[in-house]
Amino acid sequence: MYYGGGITKLFRDEIESLKQKNLFREPKIISSLHGPEIEIDGKRYINFSSNNYLGLADNPLLKKAAREAIEKYGVGAGASRLMSGTLTIHRDLEKKIAQFKREEDAMIFSSGFMANLGVIPALAGSGDAVIVDRLNHASIIDGARLSHAKIFVYPHCDIQALEKILKRVSAFRRRLVITDTLFSMDGDKAPLPEILGLCRRYKSLLMVDEAHATGVFGKQGSGLVEEYGLSGKIDIVMGTMSKALGGLGGYVTGKKTIIEYFRQKARTFIYTTSLPPFLAASSIRAIEYIENNGRERKELWKKIKYVRDGFLNMGYDLLASCSQIIPVVIGRLDKTMDVHRYLFKQGLFILVIRHPTVPKGSARFRITIMATHTEEHLHKLLTSFKSLRGTK
Ligand SMILES: Cc1ncc(COP(=O)(O)O)c(C=O)c1O
Predict the structure, then answer these.
(1) How many CB atoms lie within 10 A of CB 25?
(2) Whole-model pTM above 0.85?
């Protein structure tokens, strides 16, 4: 044994230290379907911690499409994409995504995380500069680290700081700027037109992550790139089918040539078994559904406004959020955990976001609104927070 006390002692100490700092995480086990209400230990809770924003995870049309695909293809794809794992349904989904996003082509990955881990190291390497927003998702940061490029981080949405970095990195072989379009923890938007303008001026590539914007923003529901009128103008647009699309799987879209290049280079595409066909089928149906039904999106936006107004009237700090992701910042972690336990007793399931996901001293609740929440659900949310603070 290389360590006195053995492997258990080595890692038990780390776990104990996390527990002492209130940073130990334990998943709650949910025994119902993933909707606006969930069951934990036999009790019902209102779910304000879901990325199933449109409620499509249990939409009957998506479930039917998945069942039919299981009958036709079975449950697994059997091999990686470049071996014998490319099925008609994979290509159908890629074409559907490209059309939805108004791009030339698309390719899919087994998750959004895998898309970022595959694409970023394919775009940049040693001798290149990758420039990221400080609040970008972990998968972007890890993709940047894997690439061996030099990483530059700019303060959240700070265009002047980004420009300063772009001036400094002009001698690097390739420059790649990456940003979430809708930030997953703060629920605010990146200033995309300005970022694109800078990338053009300083001859840098731009990659955006539409994970949380897809299905929620844009006239057709395809995301913030569409809402800003920038479809077809950004070099690389990635996203995931695990949030508003209700399933699982990542994707990247762009010009035909760049997608062809990724098929040769993205290791998380090449060296892993391809997406189960039933998930491809449900995602095709989800996109068709979003394109043809604005109803859920409208419902969602009505509910977002109701909840935001309620919190703002009570004097809560919602940062710069302008979306279905509503951060309610409490500050100190111990206080936030006390409130969390109180809300849980009240029947509300709301995730606490803490360091290192967010900066120390800014512990918060990440409340997410779904189109399928009822008025009673939202009323209960607001009255529970009101009872904590009283009106201002
Ligand atoms: C901004 C962002 N990008 C990528 C991902 C990864 O997506 P997936 O859950 O499909 O792996 C997430 C997931 O939380 C995300 O928030």
Answers:
(1) 8
(2) yes
